[in-house]
Every structure is written in C-alpha cells, then in structure tokens.
Automatic annotation (TrEMBL):
Organism: Maribacter ulvicola
Entry membrane topology: Multi-pass membrane protein
Compartments, record wording: Cell membrane
GO molecular function: ABC-type oligopeptide transporter activity; ATP binding; ATP hydrolysis activity
Protein name: ATP-binding cassette, subfamily B, MsbA
Membrane spanning stretches: 16-40, 89-118, 171-189, 195-212, 283-302
Record lineage: Bacteria, Pseudomonadati, Bacteroidota, Flavobacteriia, Flavobacteriales
Domain ABC transmembrane type-1 span(s) in chain numbering: 19-337
Domain ABC transporter, first and last residues per copy: 371-604
Coiled coil: none
Statement: the UniProt record of this protein carries the keyword Membrane: yes
Length: 609
C-alpha cells in the first residue's frame, strides 16, 4: 500500500476532479440502490398486494424505516388508485424504475468522466517526472542499467499503474458505497436474513484472497523480462550493421526468442492466476444467493415472516452486491499486480543523484582567468584511472592531452563537464570549485565535441540550433560556415530543413562531425572541450574538420583530447598521460627534443600512417 500512497501524490493537482468523482459516485450508489428498491411498489401493484392506507404515515425514527417506507408507498398507490386505474398506476411505477436507472447511469457516466481527467493527468505527470529524472541522473547510472529496461519502466510499467492502481480510484468510493447502501436496504427489509448472509462473506473473502498472494512476484518477473527483451531490441537496432556484417541474425534472434518465451510463460502464469479472480468471486456470490433463496424461501413459504414482493426485491438487492464485490476483488488483484510496476517506477524516481548541487550555487556567467585541476584522483570502479593529477589551463590557451587508450584522457573531459565527480581533489574555474557552481551555468561555460557525433532525428537546422535557444537562421548559417558545413548542407534535398535520420545516419562521418562542431560554434562558449573529435574520420574529412576546429578555437580556451597527434602540434601545451599520471608536458617542439614518450607516440603514428 506504500507504493499506492506514493503514486497518489501525483493526483494532488487534479483533486477537484477527485471531489466531483466522489460526489457523482455517492449519487450513483444511492440511485443504484433506489433503482432496486423501486421494484417493490411495482411488484405490489402487479400482484395486487397493496395494503390500502388512507392516512399519511408518520416518521417514528430509523428503527421504523422499513414500515415507514412500505406504508408511504402503499399510501401513495392507494391515493393514486382513487383517480386512476391499475394500468396507469403500474405505468407510474415503471416510470419510477426507469427514472431511477436513468439517474444511476447518468451519475455513473459523470463519475467516469471526471476520473478520466484525474487518471490521465496522473499518467502525464508521472511520465514527465520520470523523463526529467532520466535526464537528471548521471551518465554513470546508465552505464550499469539496460536502456530497454528504462524504456519499459516509462512505457509499460506506467501503463500498468494506470490499469491497476489508478483503476482502483474508480472503485474506492463507488463500490463500497453501493454495498453499504444496499446492505442498509437489505437490513431494513430483513435483519435476520441479512445476518444469515453475512455469516458466509468472511469465508468466501478469505478463499478469494489466497489467489492473489503471489501476483506481485509473478508480475515482477513479467516486467523485468519485458525490460530485457526491449534492451535486446534497442541493441539490435543500434548495431544492425554489425549484426548483418557478421551474419549474427540467428544469434540475436535466439536471444530474443528465449526472452519472449520466458515472457510468454510468466505472462500465462500471471494472467491465469489473475483470471481466477472474477469466476471465483462470482461463484461464491452465486453460492451465497443460493443460500439466500433457500433460507429466504423458508421465511416466505413456511414461517410467513416475509412478504413475497419484499423477498424478490431483497434478491435483486443481494445480486446487486455481486458486481461491486467482484470489482473490489479484481481491483485488489490489480493493486498486487501494480505493486511490482510501481516499485520499478519509484526506483527511478527515488534514486539519489550523486551529482548534486549545493543549496545556493554560484551562477557564473563569464570565464576570466583559468581552469585549475588540483591534485585529483578518480576511479570508475575499483582502480584509479587518474592519480594526483594537476593541470592549469589559462584563458585563451589550448592544452592538448595525449596518451595511449586507457590513460585517462577522456576521463578529464567527463570530470570538467561534471558528468562524474572526482573522488579526491577539486576542479575550479576562476577559483570557484565546479561543485559550487550550478550545473546549468557550469555547462553554459563549456562546449563539447565528442568522437561520436551525437545527432538527433530532426532537421539540420534544429540539430545545430541545440547550441543556442531561439537562434536566428543567420546565426545558424554563420556557425555552419565556420564549421565548413554550409556547402554540403546546401547540397542536401531541403538544405537546412533536411531531416538527417536517426542519429544522423543519412550523413557521412565527416558531415556529422561538422554539424556537431556547428552546434558548438553556435553556442559560443568560452571553454571548448574536444574529445578525439577527428579520430574516426578519413583524411579529407579530417582536413575539413580540423580546419573548422582551428577556426572555432581562435581566441578561445580549449582542452583537446587527441588521438591523432598531427592535429595538436600548434597547442600551447601538450600533456602526455600514462596510466592516469602526467609523464611529460611542454610544446610539440620541446617534447620532441626530450626524446621521451611523446616522441615514441609520434614515431609510432608516423610508421602506421
């Protein structure tokens, strides 16, 4: 029930709809009971059992409710019979029944109308908060999670919450009130018979509850498996070229089919258990009605303590309890099933973000002096990838980081942008620790161009425009020109309005990279971080991209992580890393003269090029 309460907090903005739904449900439950009670006067007229009463009955308190209602109806029928024949009186009674059922269904519709806004509002806000949390959580969170599992939680798990938890909101007032009003009417007709009926309810309720105990565990398995096969699907779509090139379709098909087979088995087990709810509750309900027919029949035929018309009305009322009882039984299974979905959704929402801001962070708008990396150490898991690392990048200077794969170059980019936090030491900009800056202002000072060009399934214009909100067309074109991208963009079918496909797959590697650079140019940040921005390109594309990078880095502070050493020869400082530590530092010329690690790296690349 804890999960249910946590999900219900999303209903607060829609409480007016909840209030209107409750009011409508109260009237629904009332008219639902009155619709059944209205059968009694019609049966009286039909069987000509109306007792002639010529004096209007007096109210003598709640204990006299049954006699008061019966006498009032008889008085009304007696009065009408003086002016109308039996057929007309019967029509009035039938009209009364139709009116009761009309009002019942009208309020039923209104209750569902209002709850629709509440349910869909909760669904919208829950998905929005999940998306915001997904974006807010650090990159490290997703290195341990499957993307497909996250997608499953935002899609199918949220839908499961709607179908299970939120469907309970429809029943939380309506069905219990219908049962309460009906029981009051049944007690008014015959307390003895009602007491007899309720001896059987705890027994049937206990037997029904036994079925639902394992639903949460089974539902959890279904949802986990769904997340797994969505992950396989996501990986398949992302790596389709490799799968086809290595004839691995069968391998991935077997993985997917094994997952869907497990999903098939788990789903069958879950649904078969859930499907027991309705027939089981109906069987026990009909069994209870059978008992009422026997015991009530004795009261009518043998003891003569209950009128036949009242007994038929009583039977109609007792059958009316079946529908809400079944709905409550089904809803209780829904809550158990929804528990697993809510747990998975709340796991994301309640995950603490380790990359947090201080209470009143500094909002730094400009960069004036230097970026200082002060004696930092960092590890992703057990082993440190950076140890006691120190570096100063002064304003207007270009510092290049070189070294073999795994030496810690890209880690520097992840730490300066605060995708990860350092374990020891600190990083500061103009003397302000980046942990004291707001994340928005920190990243506003930084531009990032990565080895993998991350583009989106949108137009060229919108991909470049991510660099600056509300950028004009002229600003976008100017940024593209600086990045040597304007000419190839104009050759595209719709120019800047051409859709570039999923991840920009309609473009070549060099074109994608130049769009990424255009985006960074448009943002125009004072500090630029280039993470192996040319390493995946052919020679011609590299020349165009390198030219674009040099234009972009003019009069700008840059941290360049380089794989191809030919691209960083003009850097003000080249830092050579080995196993997370600085082994050499200087200009290109100075490092060659030292005849050390840097010169060996240059010679190796010269031999392999």
């Amino acid at each position: 029930m804890n999960y249910f309460k946590k999900i219900l907090r999303f209903a607060k903005p829609y409480k007016i709809y909840a209030v209107l739904n409750i009011i409508s449900n109260i009237f629904y439950a009332l008219f639902s009971t009155l619709a059944m009670i209205s059968l009694f006067p019609m049966l009286n007229v039909l069987f000509k059992q109306t007792e002639k009463i010529y004096t209007k009955p007096q109210w003598n308190g709640i204990t006299d409710l049954k006699d008061y209602v019966t006498n009032s109806l008889n008085f009304y029928i007696t009065e009408q019979s003086q002016y109308r024949d039996s057929g007309e009186v019967l029509m009035i009674m039938v009209g009364l029944i139709i009116t009761m059922f009309l009002l019942k269904n009208l309020f039923n519709y209104l209750a569902m109308y209002f709850i629709t806004f509440l349910r869909n509002g909760v669904l919208k806000d829950l998905r929005n908060e999940l998306y915001d949390k997904t974006v807010e959580l650090p990159i490290s969170y997703y290195s341990e999670k499957r993307k497909g599992d996250t997608i499953a939680r935002i899609t199918s798990d949220v839908l499961e919450i709607q179908h299970s938890f939120l469907s309970v909101l429809e029943l939380i007032v309506r069905e219990p009130l219908t049962i309460i009003f009906t029981i009051i009417a049944m007690l008014a007709i015959s307390p003895k018979l009602t007491l007899f009926v309720f001896l059987f309810l705890p027994l049937s309720g206990f037997l029904i509850s036994l079925i639902g105990k394992s639903l949460k565990r089974k539902s959890d398995k279904v949802q986990n498996e769904q997340g797994y096969f969505l992950s396989i699907l996501e990986e398949t779509l992302g790596g389709l070229r490799v799968i086809k090139a290595f004839n691995s379709e069968t391998v991935f098909a077997k993985k997917f089919q094994a997952s869907t087979k497990r999903f098939f088995n788990f789903s069958n087990s879950l649904l078969n258990r859930q499907n027991l709810a309705s027939p089981t509750s109906e069987f026990f309900g009909i069994a209870a009605i059978g008992v009422i027919l026997w015991y009530g029949g004795q009261m009518v035929l043998v003891d003569k303590t209950l009128e036949a018309e009242l007994f038929i009305t009583y039977m109609a009322l007792s059958y009316q309890i079946l529908t809400p009882a079944k709905a409550i039984s089904k809803a209780s299974y829904g809550v158990k099933k929804g528990n697993a979905a809510a747990e998975r959704v709340l796991e994301i929402l309640e995950t603490e973000n380790p990359i947090s801001e201080i209470e009143n962070p500094i909002h730094q708008e400009a960069f004036n002096t230097a970026v200082n990396i002060n004696n930092i150490s960092f590890k992703y898991e057990d082993d440190y990838v950076l140890k006691n690392f120190n570096l100063t990048v002064e304003k207007g200077k270009t510092v290049a980081l070189v070294g073999q794969s795994g030496s810690g170059k890209s880690t520097i980019a992840n730490l300066v942008t605060r995708f990860y936090d350092v374990n020891k030491g600190d990083i500061s900009i103009d003397g302000n620790n980046i942990k004291d800056l707001s994340k928005k202002s920190l990243r506003g000072l930084l531009g990032l161009v990565t080895q993998d060009s991350i583009l989106f399934n949108d137009t060229v214009k919108n991909n470049i425009g991510l660099g600056k909100e509300n950028a004009t067309d002229d600003e976008i074109i100017e940024a593209a020109k600086i990045a040597n991208a304007h000419d190839f963009i104009m050759d595209l079918p719709n120019g800047y309005n051409t859709n570039i496909g999923d991840s920009g797959n309609k473009l070549s590697g060099g074109q994608k990279q130049r769009l990424s650079i255009s985006r960074a140019v448009l943002k125009n940040p004072p500090i630029m971080i280039l993470d192996e921005a040319t390493s995946a390109l052919d020679t011609e594309s590299e020349r165009l991209v390198q030219d674009a990078l040099e234009k972009m880095m003019k009069n700008r502070t840059s941290i360049v992580i380089a794989h191809r050493l030919s691209t960083i020869q003009n850097a003000d400082t080249i830092v050579v890393l080995q196993k997370g530590e600085i082994v050499e530092q200087g200009t290109h010329t100075e490092l060659l003269k030292r005849n050390g690690t840097y010169k060996k790296l240059v010679q190796m690349q010269t031999l392999t090029s």
